[in-house]
Design goal:
By secondary structure, the protein is α/β, with parallel strands linked by helices. 26% of the residues lie in helices and 16% in strands. The chain contains seven helices and eight strands, in the order H-E-E-H-E-H-H-E-H-E-H-E-E-H-E. It starts with 5 loop residues before the first helix and ends in a 33-residue tail after the last strand.
């Protein structure tokens, strides 16, 4: 709950209407709602019903907050809502948040972009019930880069995911992690290998609401120190300190 941004918290306190994604959002955030605020759980609503509430609220000159989980720009299905609001002439603004992949990295004390290991983070998912994945964005094609990967919405397909990652280029002993409900009080985080990923999920009965992280950065080995802080590296803020050999 305390990872809500200051701006997001302010919006929740000011809202006359809150529509929250009840299947994922921590309900503790609703405690910020003021007395008399109308609260709707979109887990039981269609897109049309969500928009209907927004339009009604706008006509009544009320301030509405559509509360998603993490950062709404990742798998938040927000563009379809924005397009309809644009058509209706209803103004809005988007508030950034903390996505699960960043919460998971914090829990594991890891850095995705270790020098000499990986300088890229690939955020992706397997095709599922809520939508497909373009053929050009296959798991195999991304695995070929051997960069750090954060894979959402795929916990129920770990056997297939593992097979496709290995087919693409990772090895079975590539470090991996499974993080259930990242940053929540009941979070579970397990570091394993790609080959033992499915067994780890089965052992701890993790079937959903988990993020898969794959890549050498998980175990933070064999990386180079950043040149930014090297004594002989000069920036506009700091002069280089030359090393002098003495006998």
């Amino acid at each position: 709950v305390d990872l809500i941004t200051v701006r997001g918290q302010r919006y929740l306190k000011e809202a006359d209407v809150i529509i929250y994604a009840g299947s994922l959002v921590n309900k503790g955030l609703l405690e910020y709602a003021k007395e008399g605020c109308e609260v709707y759980n979109s887990a039981y609503m269609t897109l049309e019903e969500v928009i209907e509430v927004m339009i009604k609220s706008e006509k009544e000159d009320k301030m509405t907050v559509r509360l998603h989980t993490g950062d709404p720009c990742l798998y938040g299905a927000i563009r379809e809502q924005m397009d309809i609001l644009d058509e209706k002439g209803i103004s809005y603004e988007s508030c950034p948040g903390v996505s699960a992949c960043f919460g998971a990295a914090s829990s594991l004390n890891m850095e995705y972009t270790l020098p000499g290991v990986s300088q890229s983070l690939i955020i992706t998912r397997m095709a599922g019930r809520t939508g497909g994945v373009p053929e050009t964005e296959s798991i195999e094609s991304f695995a070929a880069h051997k960069a750090s990967m954060a894979i959402y919405l795929s916990t129920g397909m770990l056997d297939e995911l593992t097979e496709r990652l290995i087919t693409g280029g990772y090895t079975s002993d590539t470090p991996a992690a499974l993080v259930y409900k990242a940053t929540w009080k009941d979070e579970q985080a397990y570091v394993c290998t790609l080959g033992s990923l499915a067994d780890t999920a089965e052992k701890y009965n993790i079937t959903k609401t988990a993020l898969v992280i794959v890549g050498e950065a998980v175990t933070h080995r064999n990386y180079m120190k950043s040149r930014l802080y090297a004594p002989d590296f000069e920036t506009e803020f700091r002069k280089a300190k030359m090393h002098r050999e003495t006998e």
